[in-house]
Amino acid sequence: MTDFHEIRFPLDVSLGGRGGPERRTEIVTLGSNREARNARWAHSRRRYEAGYGVKSLTQLSQIIEFFEERRGRLYGFRWRDRGDCASCAPGATASPTDQTIGMGDGARAAFQLVKTYGGAFSAYARDIVKPVAGTVRVAADGVEKSAPDVSVDAATGIVTFAPGAIPSAGAVVTAGFLFDVPVRFDADFLEIDMHAFEAGAIPNIPIVEIVP
Are 140 and 104 in contact (CB under 8 A)? Predict the structure, then answer.
């Protein structure tokens, strides 16, 4: 991912932000009054409003500095989504068997971290490209693997098995992890009215996911 800074948006602000996944669905109402629906996007895209998390002038100054260093919309960065930042259920501890990320064939060494949503009707698999360094745990057929047998690129979410440790044919490769969302500012202008801020109004700080 080019034009990306491997730095996390201030955590105390992002945890107070708002937002979530967005999809683009085209709906056509037919002459019979029935609907025809079509998904325009194969993947969801998350949008956030960081202004809700800014509660002090110190935080506001910190965000302005962060914005300037990113050159507005030019450089991406990491965002912690409080509602969806782990391979496991909220409050649980990530385990190496949380998510299936692939099947061994005796030759394949690299696997992309994935988080799957649902499963009863139409499961959605989301590539996880910004895992939190040091949190990824990997297993093959339920047996946890560690360095030097396996390594993880925290900038891409690629899990790589070393020669001699490549999963055998039919082995289920799983992983557990914490992760951030790759995002950028969705405006090149931060309009901040200090009088309104001091009166309790939130500044407008739009954030949008960078879809890999």
Answer: yes
